[in-house]
Each structure stands twice: as C-alpha cells, then as structure tokens.
Hints:
Layout: H1 18-23, E1 31-36, H2 43-56, E2 61-63, H3 66-76, H4 90-106, H5 110-126, E3 131-135, H6 140-147, E4 152-160, H7 177-184, E5 189-194, H8 198-213
Parallel strand pairs: 1-3, 1-4, 2-3, 4-5
Helix pairs in contact: 2-8, 3-4
Amino acid sequence: xxxxxxxxxxxxxxxxxxxxxxxxxxxxxxxxxxxxxxxxxxxxxxxxxxxxxxxxxxxxxxxxxxxxxxxxxxxxxxxxxxxxxxxxxxxxxxxxxxxxxxxxxxxxxxxxxxxxxxxxxxxxxxxxxxxxxxxxxxxxxxxxxxxxxxxxxxxxxxxxxxxxxxxxxxxxxxxxxxxxxxxxxxxxxxxxxxxxxxxxxxxxxxxxxxxxxxxxx
Length: 217
C-alpha cells in the first residue's frame, strides 16, 4: 500500500508512512465506508445516498469510486471514447476490466491507493473530508487495507432477479475474479434488493444512516 500523504510504500497495509504519521500533516477522514458488490448491484446508488446524507447533516464528505479512478486512467490512455462510464459501450467496459487487471497484476494496491490519494487531494482544496465513501471495493487486500482504518466499515450490496436468483450483469464476465471475489467478502452490513426495487435499496441506506449515525437523509 502507498502512503496517502506522500505516495511512499508503507508497511502492513498502513494508510500513512512513519514520516507522514509523525508530522500529522495529512488529515484523514474520521469514517471511511467501503461499498462492495457485483456489477450493477447498486454500489453507486448507495454511495450517492450516503454522501448526500452526510453532506446534508453538515459533514464534509468525499465520494470517490474505484470505477471513476479507472475510467479517468482509461481516458488518459485513450482506451475509452465515451464521455462517461454510464454511456460506455461493451468494448469500452471490456477495456476498463482489462486495465483494472493489468494494473493490479503490477501492484495489487494500485487502485485503492489511487482512490485514497484522491480523497486526500480533494481535502487539500476543499477541506479535509470527515467522511469518505468508497464504492467499488472488490478484493481482499482492499478490504484488509480499509479495515486497518479505525473508522472503516464495509457494506455489501446484493441484487437478485425477481425469481430469487442472483443478478448477473449481461455486460460482464460472471466468472471474472473481479466479480467472484466479491462473493467471498464478509461485510459488516449487507443490503439486498431485487431488480426494480431501487426505492427499497435507497430506503435501506437511509435507515442505516438513521440507526447507525442518527442522520436522517
């Protein structure tokens, strides 16, 4: 893992290197919520609800997704042409997955390090975030790193078809390790819903914030 302050390699999946931890120049969020789940299961929906809820309650909140970081990198490398991930074609999504795997093969902490750095960078210009919401946590090392944070929480989102079977996104390989590893992750909380129940998913997120943090989005 790279230090979120200076980028140097840290030990034991720590967030800060000894120098940055000693000088206390880097202000970390008090709470980090990592959201995991298969493709199209509702991770970004949950992240948006939570980020808006925290901001409404007066907290500085950083909402940075792994997919946004990968998309930005793919855009720089001209592996995608669409203006946003929401309008991406199948070949562009395939390129995103391939880029994700290639960078992880070089450094398994590459993407989560980039997400954390984005949170700190954003805080340097807008004020240090008190809460960070990270959608797209998918691998065990990312979960381990997030749990190293004193205020780290993992939420899993699971979407089912109306017949009760697990929803599988048609634009992703269901056997890709980026999808299957998610099934192995043990989360602190789990939100479940069926296709067409977006309102129910949102209600769960709001109820979670109300019961856990006393925030009514």
